Amino acid sequence: AQSVAQPEDQVNVAEGNPLTVKCTYSVSGNPYLFWYVQYPNRGLQFLLKYITGDNLVKGSYGFEAEFNKSQTSFHLKKPSALVSDSALYFCAEGRRALTFGSGTRLQVQP
Amino acid sequence: NAGVMQNPRHLVRRRGQEARLRCSPVKGHSHVYWYRQLPEEGLKFMVYLQKENIIDESGMPKERFSAEFPKEGPSILRIQQVVRGDSAAYFCASSLLSGEVSNQPQHFGDGTRLSIL
Predict the structure, then answer these.
(1) Are the beta carbons of B107 and A46 separated by less than 8 Å?
(2) Which of A80, B14, B15, B105 is the most exposed place for a label (fewest CB within 10 A)?
């Protein structure tokens, strides 16, 4: 069965610094990988996806993610964090039913 | 271009009552997914439906829970005889095509927060 792991419950970063939110996966076959962001009392907003192609995927709001097959990772990155990026981030895998990680709370300090 | 609409946003029920959660997908989307989120946890898949058909209900509890997506109208997630453990946020998502034939992401609604007294 597939699984998605987000090893960090919380990531703290200063505004303007680069950020990384980690995600590893375990699936049979080629993965379909997604990052979503959730703001308080809201649904999930799609950030980016990896299905095939370039290992570096660019998405919304300046976020990008790097697919690494050998390390089975799909870490989310942004070169310069904003306070408004503070939210809950979820990594997910799946073609139909998505399997989600447990989420990582990103806190960007002014 | 309305997104996925869920109602009600908040629902309070007493133990033993029934809860009905509604989801209107993005216009033109015929694939609907339901997920449950417990406090401070990720989302867990419950059920995947196409118009009038349940495709995958592997995440649905065996009892008290049911879902439908009729030809006309919203998708409904129904919980009978609710218990305290049903308290959670329930999210609906929709997609134009199945993820097996399309790489389009699922679009999520803002959820229904169900509280059981």
Answers:
(1) yes
(2) B14
Cα B93 to Cα A14, A51, B22, B26, distances in angstroms: 33, 19, 12, 9
Phi, then psi, of A14 in degrees rounded to 5:
-80, 145
pLDDT tens digits along A16-61: 999 999 999 999 888 999 999 999 888 899 999 998 888 999 999 9
Residue that the structure tokens 């895998």 belong to? A93
With CA atoms as reference, report the closest residue to A96 among B70, B56, B5: B56
CA distance A62 to chain B (A): 18
- Compare CB distances from A100 to B43, B58, B113 and report the shortest one's residue: B43
Among B96, B78, B97, B84, smallest CA distance to B22 is for: B78
